[in-house]
Amino acid sequence: MMQIGIDKMGLFTPNTYLDLVMLANARGVDPDKFTIGIGQDQMAIAPLSQDSVTMGVNAALDLLDGENRDNISLLVLGTESGIDQSKAGALYIQRLLGLQNARAFEIKEACYGATAGLMTAYDYVTAHPDQKALVIGSDIARYGLETPGEVTQGAGAVAMLVSAQPRLMVLEPQTTVHSADVQDFWRPNYSKEAFARGKYSTEQYIDFFQKTWADYRNTTDRTIADFKALCFHLPYTKMGLKALRTILPEATEAQQADLLARYQESTLYSRQIGNIYTGSLYLGLMSLLEQSQQLQAGDRIGLFSYGSGAISEFFTAILQPNFETQLAAQKHADLLAKRQQLTMAEYETQFQTELPEDGSAFEIDLTVDPSPVVLTRMKEHERIYEVLTQAVKP
Ligand code: HMG
After folding, report:
1. Which end of the chain is more exposed for a tag (fewer CB within 10 A), N or C?
2. Where is the active site (predicted)?
3. Strands 373-379 and 382-387, how do they pair?
4. pLDDT per residue over 342-367, tens digit each?
5. What is the pLDDT of residue 1?
């Protein structure tokens, strides 16, 4: 049978971050609340030169080569930080990556957007096995200064190349979905910051997890014993843990310890980057694959996607022989290690500085941003992007 899945994954996060102990001290909060209670150490802060388009391109750069470039005929950008109400960010991304004539579009359903893209790509490649799909989740999470959500902000993107006979992981066809109209988190068109009913959103997340997990167990003959690891959408790293704990009693004691250890490995990148909305589940997956020494080909990994509003999907993947060769742990360690720490004043200024909305010309300061692809300026209501590296060869 033709097998479809993820061949390779790419990651990008901006070059600046805020230390959350510093944030706790500035806000008069016990730092343990942030580092233990919420489970976050740092959060990425996007400079003006990074948006959902540039971060998506920067994440996808490593996935392209001379061989696959011509076969990518579907390009989906999942984002809730879109830069335009009409034109899809995917079209800028297609040009900046030197791709052509793809079904390129943007898709929105809160943090579920990249999963919607992945499932669409799965169906597309099933129907066209000689073609490939590029799925990107790219977001800047903003709740506002001095809000309860402030500590759960972040910025970054994940890109996934979906193909037949994938070298990283095969996606299995059985998935379960739960969706309902729920007002837990939203961002009206006129607002740059999200509104969240914090406690309610965490309850909905757990409820949706339990429903999709129960459906999965009832519609397949699988149990928790069939899983080597479970990855969760990670708005903050304590959130997935709360959900995981609700089903741990279904496992033996030894397996509980293993699942908890794998869970911790899946949270290492998110702890330093924060919530990247659409990419967060896949950031957790990359962290697990690159940081765990316990995984083997043939292992089954469960993935729980949650997008406020709300929709959840539980799906599974099987690691492929030599999957390690498709990973880039050192590159991602460097990406994180080279970041600059912001002071509170720099963070607050960066947070409050906005691009002009009146059509005036504006040059963006690029001195803090060494990324290959950047937003350089605004001109007559247009964003002008530039590729500053030879890494992109159209
Ligand atoms: P809060 O109300 O300030 O925090 O906001 P809290 O009082 O609930 O405390 C948090 C935890 O810290 C608690 O642990 C405390 O006990 C603990 P828990 O009971 O939850 O296990 N704590 C301490 N621990 C150690 N030492 C201490 C200490 N003090 C307290 N001294 C909240 C927390 C997450 C609600 C807030 O940050 C928020 O509103 N965030 C945004 C919403 C969010 O992330 N929701 C998650 C579920 S919805 C989702 O995942 C979708 C989303 O990604 C969007 C999308 O789909 O697009 C958000």
Report:
1. N
2. 80 (proton donor/acceptor), 111 (acyl-thioester intermediate), 233 (proton donor/acceptor)
3. antiparallel
4. 999 999 999 999 999 999 999 999 99
5. 75
Conformation bin of residue 138: beta by default, left when phi > 0, alpha when psi is -120 to 50:
beta
Are 253 and 192 within one domain? yes
Tell me how crowded residue 93 is: count the other CB atoms within 10 A of its CB.
Answer: 31
One domain, residues 136 and 93:
yes
The domain that holds 197 is classified in CATH as 3.40.47.10
pLDDT at 394: 42
pLDDT at 393: 43
- 272 lies in which domain range? 173-321
Residue nearest to atom 50 of ligand 1 (CA): 235
Pairing of strands 154-164, 362-363: unpaired
How remote is the CA of residue 279 from the centroid of ligand 1, in Å?
Answer: 19
* Preceding amide of 310 cis, omega within 30: yes
Non-local CB neighbours of 90 within 8 Å, separated by 6+ positions: 75, 76, 77, 102, 104, 105, 106, 136
| Cβ neighbour number for residue 91 with a 10 Å cutoff | 17
Pocket (CB within 6 angstroms of ligand 1): 30, 32-33, 36-38, 80, 110-111, 148-149, 151-152, 184-185, 196, 198-199, 201-202, 205, 233, 235-236, 238-239, 275, 277, 306-308
- Domain match, 266 and 360 both: no
Q: Do 377 and 384 form a contact (C-beta atoms < 8 A)?
A: yes
pLDDT of 67 reads 85
Please give the structure tokens belonging to residue 24. 């706790």
pLDDT at 347: 98
Supply the residue whose CA is at minimum distance from atom 29 of ligand 1.
33
Spans in the chain with pLDDT lower than 70: 390-394
pLDDT of residue 68: 87
Percentage of the residues of the chain whose pLDDT score is greater than 70: 99
